[in-house]
Amino acid sequence: MLRRARLNTGALGGGNYPITQLPNYSIRAQSGFTMIELLVVLTLIVVLASMGLTQYRHSVIYARESTLKEDLFRIRDAIDQYYADKGQYPSTLDALVSDGYLRKIPDDPFTKSNSSWQTVPAEPDPNNPTAESGVFDIKSGSDATAMDGSKYADW
């Protein structure tokens, strides 16, 4: 007499089925994603990409503004050192380079040129009115507006 082994577990639907026979579960093979699922995923990707691009653009502008602030600080510091050493302001920005106060005139990060800097002349010396006034201050040559609403030319 041949006996069949029986599976006595409730894992397959609670019944006693022979090992060779399983309950009739309808298993339907899905062959892909629906159009709605694809549209939802693509929409999420577009939203995340646009947020990332916006952050990237703001970080580029922020980096340029930081570079401009640093360049203005360094050039103004060199002008002050020149004045402290020589008792007069430099006649041009190139005098700062030729006398060793700067290695080179940096490029304005917004105009991408080192010739676009706007110089502010010093007040004439009342003791020597014929002397050249020289460069007292420097401003950016860009007419763009900063992220805080101020003009770069006013920094």
Task: Give a brief description.
The chain has helices at 35-86, 93-98, and strands at residues 6-7, 17-18, 118-121, 135-139.
Keywords for this entry:
155 residues; rod-shaped; 2 helices; 37% helix; two-stranded antiparallel sheet; two-stranded antiparallel ribbon; mainly alpha
Elements, N to C (H/E) = EEHHEE
- What portion of residues is helical? 25-40%
Rg calculated over all Cα atoms: 37 Å
Strand content: 5-15%
Order of strands across the biggest sheet?
A: 1-2
Query: Uncertain runs with pLDDT below 50, 5 residues or more?
Result: none
Q: Characterize the biggest β-sheet.
A: 2 strands, antiparallel
Quick one: overall form? rod-shaped
Q: Give the overall average pLDDT.
A: 86
Plain-language structure description:
With 155 residues, the protein is mainly alpha-helical. It has a domain at 56-148. The chain is built from two helices and four strands, in the order E-E-H-H-E-E. The chain has helices spanning 35-86, 93-98; strands at 6-7, 17-18, 118-121, 135-139. The strands form two sheets. A two-stranded antiparallel sheet has the order 1-2. The chain has a two-stranded antiparallel sheet with strand order 3-4. The radius of gyration is 37 Å and the shape is rod-shaped. The termini are far apart. The mean pLDDT is 86.
